[in-house]
Amino acid sequence: MAISPTHPLEQILQNRIAIIDGAMGTTIRTYGMAEADIRAERFKDSSKDLLNNGDLFSITQPDMICDIHRRFLEAGADILETNTFGATSITQSEFFVDDPREHGGRKDPEFYQKIIDDTMLGDLAWEINETSARQCREWADRVGNDTGRQRFVAGAIGPLTVSLSNSPDADDAGFRVVTFDQVKTAYMQQIRALIAGGSDLLLVETIFDSLNAKAALVAIREVFDEDKVQLPIMISAAVGRGGETLISAQTTEAFWNAVQHVKPLSVGLNCSLGPDLMYPFLDELSTKANVAISCYPNAGLPNPLSETGFDLGPDDMARYLGDFARAGLVNIAGGCCGNTPEHIAAIAKALEGLPPREIGASR
Prior knowledge:
single chain, alpha/beta, TIM Barrel, 8-stranded parallel sheet, 14 helices, globular
């Protein structure tokens, strides 16, 4: 999966730190949307609450989503993520299919095969991904042309609501609710739609289950081979306080060893911990990996009393990520949960002129 060394983003990463955008969900909440807003006319009769299905806003409230993309770009983002964190048929089923556990049943591979085969869910997942990618593409090109600085669309591929690594049944350690092939199939559909919408990159992010991530990476490889396409791949894991992926419990070094064969454009850490707690694990990853390093942490730890739901403001995030840059740890920086366009603007300003981490050899 090696990419051409002349890819424009790779050239940028050799010369400066690139900025990735912030938290879509956090920023959506500042617009005061209600259940009726996400339903609009199209989903007005849905039997389950949809407000937490943020990806659906790309269809029902496109003006808001495009406004958020615009604000992140004007804040200085070089890389714009599609609003597709949960845009697979598997994750969308949580909002449109009755949970069999509420009727004495259980979620299992038979249940998820019906999800994979469900035309409505498949079509919806495709629409969300392609629509969001096209929205990002339009605004990345518009702002890029206006500023004379190319911007890039990263097709965001989230971790799913199911795990391939762990059993939910304490009495049956070998049980899995879903199969590897089912997860791969759902991801392949998402990937094709993201590419159809005009994504420049594919971003497998917030990885808490390394086996889920492997299914996504296999899906990418198969789509590339079957469709004769090739895009750069970014990989970003979520880690716990011990520096391990949250469910599969791979250490930072083990995680890199498991994905380096993909030859990604970048590998990094996001979400999970605030920047202070993430520092040692980012330092370790920077020591081991011979590709670009990305870092977009949460704005500290959750705080329901805070305006954004997280502790750290724009100046705080700018200070922490500035320290990361001065330590030579990052090539791509931004923010995850709790980071608004104002946070990204402060980060971009703090990192302006600071040299990127040297790419090509681990320390």
